[in-house]
Amino acid sequence: MKRIIINEDNIEEKDVESTVVRVKALMINEKKELLVVHNNYTYQFPGGHWKSYESLEESLTREIKEETGINCIIDFGPFMVIEEYYKNYLNTGQTRCNKIYYYVVHSNDNPKVQEMSLSRLERKTDFNLFYIPLKDMEQFIKESINNKSIETVIGKEMLEVMKEYREKYSGR
At what angle do helices 137-146 and 152-169 cross, to 10 degrees? Predict the structure, then answer.
C-alpha cells in the first residue's frame, strides 16, 4: 500500500491531539467509468468517516450504501493512504492528523436514490452523483481546480490517488 505523508509543519506523532480516519472508494463500472460525488460545493470520491467499532472495510461498505444506495463487497484492502498533519486545523488551534484510506470497488450497480441515507449537511447542499470516464478523470480534476469548482487540497489528493491507481492497476 502506498503511503503519502503531508506534514509541512514537521509535527511529531506525540503532538497530535486528534486523528480523523476516512475511507474512500474509486467506484468503477464495467464501462470504465468512475463514480464521483458533488457535495458541499466540491467534488470527491464516495466515502466518509470510519467509526471505531467498524473495520475500515465495514465503514466503507456503510458509507457507500449511505451515499449511493449501492450494496457492495470490499474484496481487497486499501491501495493507498494519505496522512495529513495540521498544526492549526481550520484555525481551531488543534493539532490534527487526517488519514484517508483509498480502495478500488468494482460495481455495475447504478446509484439508488431511494436507498441513500444522506447526512443533514449532504441533504442541505447540492448532493449529486455522476460518472466520468476513467480516462478523463485527471483532466476533469485539473479543470475543476483551475475553475475553482473543487477545493484545491481535495483536487490535489484526487490527482495523487489517480496517479497511484494508474501505476498500480494499469493494464487491468
Answer: 160
CATH number of the domain to which 100 belongs: 3.90.79.10
Q: Indicate if the pLDDT at residue 76 is higher than 80.
A: yes
Count up the domains in the chain and report the number.
1
Residue 114 has pLDDT above 90, yes or no: no
Residue 70 lies in a domain: yes
Q: Is 172 a domain residue?
A: no
**Counting Cβ atoms within 10 Å, is residue 85 exposed (0-12), middle (13-18) or buried (19+)?**
buried
Cβ atoms within 10 Å, residue 16: 14
Phi–psi pair at 129, nearest 5 degrees: -120, 140
For residue 149, being part of any structural domain is answered with no
Expressed as residue numbers, the domain containing 14 is 2-133
Entry pTM: 0.93
* First vs last C-alpha separation in the chain: 17
CA distances from 80 to 16, 22, 103 (A): 22, 12, 7
156 lies in a domain?
Answer: no
